[in-house]
Specification:
- A hairpin with a 4-residue loop joins strand 3 and strand 4.
- About 75% of the residues lie in helices and about 0% in strands.
- It starts with a helix and ends in an 8-residue tail after the last helix.
- The chain has a single domain, classed as Hydantoin permease, CATH 1.10.4160.
- The protein has 23 helices and four strands.
- The protein has a two-stranded antiparallel ribbon with strand order 1-2. It has a two-stranded antiparallel ribbon with strand order 3-4.
- By secondary structure, the chain is an all-alpha fold.
Length: about 525
């Protein structure tokens, strides 16, 4: 009898514990579902049509106010950016102080922007929006050139040095010291600056770290059979060796890895281009037809087809080059440049290289391969099961076999790894602004440790939340650019008057008198010509 009571009691207790556990699990599931629902609603706003329209508006505004600088002074900015790499030692020479060279700032910025979005993102845009999405990607890049230009101009103009003598700049500084200096805007300026830094800090762990490493480990396992934990351990060590060394070491690595990976990928995509060169006319035709809904006309869905093409093209364009998010300005602000416009021109080239060059080559490789039916804009019947994650690999595998799929796996690994390095600096600067310089070391340690978690974790809510926080950075940043658009126009006019028209005007180097005097006293360089 006693045994029965014990068994009954044990069974009852076990049942109660099981029921309690099930209830807790159900409660946790409901809680996570609620978070997912809220995040989905917020995400649809920050990455929805209104936000994309705001991005386009800012690009148009800055294009008008600067008199279409990206077109009217194309030769000048091209000569002073990538052209200067081969003619101006000041652009590439390593500095002895805490700043980095202009070329290093570009490479570190490109390290963060040239990522999986240039491969997987473009594939996703075409799968959902059709070939026409590529046209709208170009439109967003054209406008994004001047948005990124404006961010970099403001970043240099409002940057300050921290106690270590390192430049600190970014949206949080021109929001606090630029927008905040406007009458009655001190509080709102500080609030928006704090929000931007917080959103950036959170996004750095997700979009800038774990999702990128997850892409690396997934590809290494799928193509080469390497366990995810092995990839995670290797990437953790590599990231740790670079990130703990600070910006100088990050810049030293990215200036070597970024040109190599971009040129390597360009060679591969150009090879596909020449193999399929007979289809180029059809590719261009499908892009322009799809952009304006001509392909959907037969199905009576013209409006919907145009909407998808515009939305996906613009969204993936922003995902790729990050113009408007205010992210890359945090590393551009560390440049040894004096002229705000000089660094602004590097911002123009950054968007040009990322979207107009790299993304376009990816798109041409996909559209010329036969994987997409150019008449319908959809996947060809033989490839109907492909997803955005394996589309580009399939294109290369078709032409080059295992070497082709291996090439894409290695490209994604390089792109994603470089993105982690670039975003580690963004997160560090956001942490410095919010918590002070002393907290940046614990941040870097945590950032490195999360690399392993990203390698072994599957898709979950964390990725979606990180995507939302990445988009949330855009809102305060664009508010700052709009409010300070007149300042950008004045600085641009000042630069054009002095350097292109030969007028004798006082330079506009900084919003702060002490920094202005310091820059004026600095030795003249080739950039001052």
């Amino acid at each position: 009898m006693k045994l029965k009571r014990i068994l009954f009691s044990g069974t009852l207790s076990g049942s109660m514990l099981y029921a309690a556990g099930a209830a807790a699990e159900e409660g946790a599931g409901s809680f996570l579902d609620s978070i997912a629902d809220v995040n989905s609603a917020v995400n649809s706003v920050v990455w929805g049509v209104p936000a994309l329209a705001l991005l386009a508006f800012v690009g148009i505004l800055m294009t008008v106010l600067t008199k279409a600088f990206q077109v009217s002074h194309f030769g000048h900015w091209f000569k002073k950016t990538i052209g200067a790499v081969f003619s101006d030692k000041h652009v590439t020479t390593h500095t002895k102080d805490k700043s980095i060279s202009q070329f290093q700032s570009l490479c570190t910025a490109l390290a963060a922007t040239v990522g999986t979005g240039n491969i997987v993102g473009v594939a996703g845009a075409i799968l959902v929006g059709g070939p026409g999405a590529v046209f709208w990607m170009w439109v967003m890049a054209f406008l994004g050139m001047m948005t990124n230009y404006s961010e970099n101009v403001l970043g240099i103009y409002y940057r300050r040095k921290n106690s270590k003598g390192e430049w600190s700049g970014g949206a949080m500084y021109y929001l606090r010291d630029g927008l905040g200096a406007k009458k009655g805007c001190k509080t709102i300026g500080k609030a928006l600056a704090g929000l931007f830094a917080f959103f950036c800090l959170v996004a750095s762990f997700g979009i800038g770290n774990m999702t990128q490493v997850n892409a690396i480990s997934g590809n290494m396992q799928n193509v080469f059979g390497i366990p995810t934990w092995v990839t995670g351990a290797v990437v953790l060590i590599l990231v740790g060796l670079v990130v703990v060394g600070g910006l100088k070491r990050i810049a030293a690595v990215t200036e070597k890895i970024v040109p190599f990976m971009v040129i390597l990928y360009m060679i591969g995509t150009i090879a596909i281009f020449f193999v399929n060169i007979s289809h180029i006319g059809a590719v261009f035709t499908s892009i322009f037809k799809g952009a304006f809904g001509a392909e959907a006309a037969a199905g009576g869905m013209v409006g919907y087809g145009i909407k998808l093409a515009i939305e996906m093209g613009m969204k993936r364009g922003v995902f790729s080059n990050e113009a408007g998010l205010g992210s890359s300005v945090m590393v551009h602000s560390n440049s040894n440049v004096k002229e705000p416009v000089k660094q602004g021109m590097w911002g123009i080239f950054e968007v040009f290289a990322d979207t107009i060059v790299v993304c376009t080559l990816t798109a041409f490789a996909i559209l010329s391969s036969g994987v997409i039916d150019l008449d319908t804009g959809k996947l060809a019947d033989a490839f109907s099961t492909l997803t955005k994650n394996d589309l580009v690999a399939t294109v290369f595998e078709q032409k080059f076999g295992f070497i082709g799929s291996s090439f894409i796996a290695v490209s994604i690994a390089l792109f994603a790894f470089s993105t982690v390095l670039g975003w580690s600096h963004y997160g560090t600067k956001a942490c410095e602004y919010l918590l002070g310089e002393k907290r940046t070391i614990p941040y870097r340690i945590l950032f490195v440790l999360l690399v392993f978690g990203g390698a072994v974790m599957g898709d979950n809510l964390a990725w979606e939340l990180a995507d939302t926080f990445n988009g949330l950075m855009m809102i305060p940043n664009l508010i700052g650019v709009i409010v300070l658009s007149g300042t950008v126009a004045k600085i641009t006019k000042n630069y054009v008057s002095r350097h292109l028209r030969g007028l004798d005007e006082k330079p506009m180097y900084s919003a702060f008198p002490d920094v202005e005097m310091e820059q004026e006293a600095a030795p003249a360089t080739d950039e001052d010509d």
